[in-house]
Amino acid sequence: MTTTTSAPPVSAGPGPAKVRAWPRTVGVSLTRIGIIVLAAALVELAVELRWATPLQVAPPSIVLPALWDGLTTGNYLSLLGTTLAEVGVAFLCAATVGTTLGYLLWRRPLFGRAYEPLLYALASSPIVLLYPVSLVMFGRTPVAVAVLGFVAGLFPVLISTYQAFRRLDDTYIKVAKVLRLTPGQSFLRVLLPAALPSVLVGLRLGLTLTMLTVIAMEYLANVGGVGAELSLAYLRLRSADMYAVLLLIISLSVTFLFLLNLTTRLVVKR
Amino acid sequence: MNAPTDGAAGTAPALVIADVSKSFGDQTRRVPALGKVSLTVARGEFVSLIGPSGCGKSTLINIVAGLIDGYEGRVTVSGAPLDGPHPSIGMVFQDDSTFPWLSTLQNVEFGMRMAGVNATERRERAMEMLDLIGLRSFADRYPAQLSGGMRQRVALARALAMRPEILLMDEPFAALDEQTRMVLGEELLRLQEELQQTVVFVTHNLGEAVQLSDRVVAMTARPASIKAILEVDLPRPRDSSIVSSDRYGELVAHLWSLLREEAITAFNQRDAAQAGAVR
């Protein structure tokens, strides 16, 4: 059996008028904001209709002014500064130590193979529960919080760095050798950029865990920044303040992740 | 473009492989990968190595690239003994070796940049190479935006930009589909005519070997040694239309007659190895 095909007809004359397309990103942003506004409106309505009490769920009409007051006349900015400093120091240390150790484990395969299962076990353990140890060692100070944040962020960074180098395409190493690159050139110009996307995944996870642990420890030990404030607001039944601080914490983590995604996009152009 | 150097190096063959053999493993269990291989490649010559899978062709080309040491025998490049990766040797690999974090132009410039070639000359040579491989208009694209065939051309341009005396190609088209392979083969023939580049080309493909080469070295099953060397007397310049000539067909058939027995031996070796692994 044979089939015949013919070319599709060529349209003559002007094509359809060009309609300026609505940029997709605008649509996505509007949808995102729309859903948040809708959820807030539903909460407001629920409290208004007495489906929930203001103590259980503070309505946005109370939370937003409380947040504004906390930021302008209250101590939210100073609390935020404390938390940011703890997260910043902890993450910087976790990133530096984690990437260095991950690289060294790859360079020394015996150690890599010996420690890999242990590292995975530690990475998946609830590090935050070590907070009494940190308190005993460093007292009720921001240092104790930062140390625990560092430990929580360390393992994902270390493991992802180790895996990133382990999974490097052997061909890149061969190219570096054939082009007679020095060890320094080889590391900086080939190995590091090749491993970077996976390392960045670990850094993102490390940052998330560091932030979670820092805020959780602040909450549990009632020390430091926004986590401690959340704990106080909860214990004193200051519902509006509690939700205002929660909103602050969520905004903080969203900002962090946005910045990290932006950095990833700028660094990894591929 | 690749003018031979003056003096002794200019008259010496581009590459001499003398009694080279290689085994892997330790003292208790040595696996011979390469028997004694001797081969001389003249300047501007295109030589293909063909043999069964796993016979040791890639081991040989990796030795010449300076990527494998601890071998027996001697390799000289333009009369000088080989001691690790040589500045006169470029290489194109089977797998995609373009760097995804660099643009096409930056990929082609990479080797020159690392070697300290100044920015103006680097850009000039890279653009010249991109013209040669027909990818000038893709200079700013990243590898992820290119097809597999285009990426291999970028890898080829990166190697050629270093102006190597010898270009090693380890099954560079193996991962590509048949039509792309034919197109790139034709491209390589054109480059070879233009640059008179010395090329050592590893392939599994009988037709590709005959179409591209001045000589085809047929290798035995592992441990590889040279079984026969086929002189390809097809006229140059060639293009892909050569595959419809009678002589091409005869040469491919002859090459297969040389390799058939080796391919069966290699097949049985693999079967035995797999059975051993299962036991």
TrEMBL record, chain A:
InterPro entries: MetI-like, MetI-like_sf. Keywords: Cell membrane, Membrane, Transmembrane, Transmembrane helix, Transport. GO terms for cellular component: plasma membrane. Signal peptide: none annotated. It comes from the Bacteria. It is a multi-pass membrane protein. GO terms for biological process: transmembrane transport. The chain crosses the membrane at residues 26-47, 87-106, 118-138, 144-165, 186-207, 242-262. SUPFAM superfamilies: MetI-like. The keyword Lipid biosynthesis does not apply. It is found in: Cell membrane. Gene3D superfamilies: MetI-like. Residues 80-258 form the ABC transmembrane type-1 domain. Belongs to the binding-protein-dependent transport system permease family. This is ABC transporter permease subunit. It comes from Streptomyces radicis.
From TrEMBL, chain B:
GO terms for molecular function: ATP binding; ATP hydrolysis activity. This is ABC transporter ATP-binding protein. The lineage of its organism: Bacteria, Bacillati, Actinomycetota, Actinomycetes, Kitasatosporales. PANTHER family: ALIPHATIC SULFONATES IMPORT ATP-BINDING PROTEIN SSUB, TAURINE IMPORT ATP-BINDING PROTEIN-RELATED. It holds the Pfam family ABC_tran. Residues 15-246 form the ABC transporter domain. Keywords: ATP-binding, Nucleotide-binding, Transport. The keyword rRNA-binding does not apply. It comes from Streptomyces radicis. SMART domains: AAA.
